[in-house]
Amino acid sequence: MTRRWNGWGDDGIVGKVPGGAISQLESLVGPGRPTPDATLADVVDTLPAGRLPDHPLVSAGAEDRIRHSRGQSLGDWVALRSASLGRVPDGVGRPSSSAEVRELLGYAGEVGATVVPYGGGTTVVGGLSPSDLGPPHGSDPPVLVVDLERLAGLRAFDPASGLASFGAGVTGPALESALKAHGRMLGHEPQSWEYSTLGGWVATRSSGQRSLGFGRIEALFAGGRLEAPAGTLDLPTYPASAAGPDLRQVVLGSEGRLGIVTEATVRTVPIPEYQRTLALFVPDWGRAMEILLELAGARLPLAMVRMSTQDETRTTLAMAGRRRRLGLAMRWVGLRGGGGDPCLLLLGLAGQTRIAEATAGLASKIVRHHGGVPAPDAFGRQWDAGRYLQPYLRNTLWEAGYAVDTLESATDWTRAPTLAAALVQTLNAGLDGENERAHAFAHLSHVYSSGTSIYVTYIFRRSPRPEGTYRRWLTLKTAASRTIVEHGGTISHQHGVGRDHAPYLAVEKGELGMAALRDLAARFDPDGLMDPEVLLGGTGRPVPAAESEGGT
Ligand SMILES: Cc1cc2nc3c(=O)[nH]c(=O)nc-3n(C[C@H](O)[C@H](O)[C@H](O)COP(=O)(O)OP(=O)(O)OC[C@H]3O[C@@H](n4cnc5c(N)ncnc54)[C@H](O)[C@@H]3O)c2cc1C
Predict the structure, then answer these.
(1) Residue 365, CA atoms < 13 Å, CB-side half-sphere
(2) N or C: which end of the chain has fewer CB within 10 A?
């Protein structure tokens, strides 16, 4: 199993996109125009030597540096696939203890390097990118990536409290497998679970697909250790405390600006005896909103509530090759008095069988009351089986000439329907200026009593030139980010800030809030060792100059 160097996931797994879905895309945004990608060998051959002096914990191998140069945002993909990487880290450190992290911070201080902590490299907001489109090495400081993969095992498990301490570099599968041996689980399941790490989740305030039931990472993170340039911060694991401000909240979402999370203790639960995803169809978006509000108000112990718009339902079922099944489902809903173009609702259940079944019954009653009907059981089972495979479709679509990206926000119930509609509209019209079309669709998930997250996927044709694809992406991303802040949404419900969202952070933090965050960074990192461009950088990605793209 080798990890793809320029896209998502394991090299050996190919996401299959049915022919029918490609025809649908062609009619929505036009025929894809694939262009060949750069090979890893091309990039290795042209990479300048690293500028860091030798250190026993630091690798300067070209392939290692390239593989640690980017995350998974679309801007990162364009850079990797076109070999226009700009700055590439000069070395990759792999500490196996907090003491070695301190040693690397000391070394970075001595040689004047910028430090970028690296978990699973799955950031989709430019959390790891030293710089775009710039010269490979200018007079800027050298970059030292600190990869936490060797700081990864289960350190301690307390069965009475259910507290489990891990090295921060542990990935989702390794963490759950270690807990399973104790009959426990964490249940934190971002769709990047295969590769993302506990330290990365803490650093980005991530949310799992079943966080409604299991809790977001801020509820699961009981304490741990941060190694900052200024010293060590140990966070004790009290079940609750009124002893002043909670310093865990300072570390959660700090995105490597304050230092490196080396250890995290999490609150685990016994593996639930009952786990299932129920799928239902709802006749239209109006009734979908009524159902969501009623489910949110009912406070049922559901692990997940996820409602797709009609457009997303159509598109995702077509991508999964289920057009025939969708046709049948639409007729089924139609026969029961609903429209012929339903919304897909997924409900996650996890817990004791008796309680989970009662919850399923109560939730289904609410859905049926608004004209919804259950989908065949296979829908829920297939979603469970395929949920980590969906991101692989992004590779296949890229190779067919299409770029796919996602973005998200959260807001209160009053604003959510308007923001969701405005985001889809903004993205659909975002490339009108260059006579191109984009196709966007959304779902609402992580349903809270006061509001909901909004998750949007958008697809557009790649330009024959990488700069053109990059500019299209930045145009859409910028328009969508502005729409989010104008409609009172947070710039991120789960992906974090990185470089891509940094220009919008001040809107929600305010002047004093931003100053306080900068003061914190200066306290933990007085000499400015940690990557200054993420979280508080504020400038975002550079826009390439407009030019004729020839052949668009
Ligand atoms: C296909 C796909 C699906 C995704 N689905 C979800 C989802 O469902 N929910 C969700 O919340 N996010 C999701 N994401 C986004 C991403 O996976 C999360 O932000 C995740 O928490 C990042 O973890 P990571 O270990 O990969 O961190 P990285 O990508 O390696 O790093 C992210 C940021 O955190 C910093 N960092 C990493 N580790 C540490 C550490 N130990 N100490 C200090 N700073 C650190 C890095 O410097 C960087 O700024 C998805 C991404 C992809 C590509």
Answers:
(1) 8
(2) N
* Percent of the chain whose predicted confidence (pLDDT) is above 70: 93
Residue 47 DSSP class: P
DSSP, collapsed to helix, strand or coil, labels residue 472 as: helix
Distance between Cα 288 and ligand 1 center (Å): 31
Question: What average pLDDT does range 304-313 have in this prediction?
Answer: 96
**CA-only gyration radius of the chain, Å:** 23
Report yes or no: 134 and 544 within 8 Å, Cβ to Cβ: no
Residue 318, pLDDT score: 80
φ, ψ for residue 130, nearest 5 deg: -60, -40
Residue pair 459/402 in contact by the 8 Å Cβ criterion: yes
Instruction: Delineate the domains of the chain, giving CATH numbers in brackets.
Output: 41-147 (3.30.43.10), 154-270 (3.30.465.10), 274-385 (3.30.70.3450), 392-497 (3.30.300.330)
CA distance 450 to 50: 50
Nearest CA to ligand 1 atom 22: 200
Environment class of 73 (CB within 10 Å of its CB; exposed 0-12, middle 13-18, buried 19+): buried
pLDDT of residue 84 exceeding 90, the answer is: no
Contact predicate 284/343, CB 8 Å: yes
Confidence of residue 544 (pLDDT cuts 50, 70, 90): low
Q: What is the mean pLDDT of the chain?
A: 93
C-alpha distances (whole Å) from 182 to each of 97, 162, 173, 178 are 24, 10, 15, 7
Euclidean distance between CA atoms 493 and 497, whole angstroms: 10
Q: How far is CA 101 from CA 6, 213, 249, 391, in A?
A: 28, 34, 22, 32
Place of tokens 């990536």: 145
Ligand 1 geometric centre to CA of 149 (Å): 14
| Single pTM value for the model | 0.96
- Residue-wise pLDDT tens digits, 145-195: 999 999 999 999 999 999 999 999 999 999 999 999 999 999 999 999 999
Atom of ligand 1 lying closest to residue 193 CA: 17
pLDDT in tens, 280-306: 999 999 999 999 999 999 999 999 999
**Nearest alpha-carbon partner for 58 in 113, 6, 134:** 113
Q: Is the CB of 126 under 6 A from ligand 1?
A: no
Q: Give me 230's structure tokens.
A: 């200024």
CA distances from 291 to 193, 298, 357, 455 (A): 29, 10, 19, 18
Q: Phi/psi of residue 317, each to 5°?
A: -70, -35
Statement: residue 548 has pLDDT above 60: no
Give phi and psi for 148, each to the nearest 5. -95, 15
Q: E strands within 127-230? A: 143-147, 154-158, 163-167, 184-185, 221-228
List the residue whose alpha carbon is closest to atom 13 of ligand 1.
190
Ligand 1 atom nearest residue 496's Cα: 19
Is 534 a pocket residue for ligand 1 (Cβ < 6 Å)?
A: yes
